[in-house]
Amino acid sequence: MNHQHSFLKRNGLLLTFMILMIFTIIGQTYTGWNEHVQEQIEKNRPFYILSEYLYSGHFIQSTFENWESEFLQMGLYVYLTVFLFQRGSAESKSLDEPEAVDRHPIPHKNAPWPIKKGGLYLILYQNSLSLIFLVLFLISFLLHAYGTMKDINDSGQEKLTYLQVFSENRFWFESLQNWQSEFLSVAAIVFFSIYLRQKGSPESKPVDAPHSETGK
Q: I need a surface site. Which of 18, 65, 121, 144 has the fewest CB within 10 A?
């Protein structure tokens, strides 16, 4: 049976996380700018006003350093769960039973248009979720590199070209410290969902499900 739901109920999960993101990036901007001002005053150097700070290497680097790791985490998670399994985890497909996500797409009246079109459109569409995360990761990765280069150059320590920043220890330290935390968080949800439950969450198995039951 179809029910009419309010806009908020239909979009509550997305809206909540977007609101949280907006509040936290405002907080990041303000506190990051204060940190920048304090550092520049201590070094007796000029500092950016708040509007200028948004274009600074300090802000660009810190923002996209984090975005890059998030998109890498989600892209790898989406792709690796196609063919890797974890017995008992709610985050894994079943080791034995066929899954609906593996069935060959069949055109029907309400199917997305690439399904009806077929060919290259279908190939791209059936991999589009992992592809969009790959694109977002690459964009964030390149912007992170640009922000790191700009921050180093603005500090007057040295003048790097864009390509030179990829050989900088600082750039890879910034990336790898975030990547490892994202990989740990995925491993944690994969493992803990074997033994622990959250009633009502689609990310958990049913509360009475045995630990060996794999998938949701």
A: 18
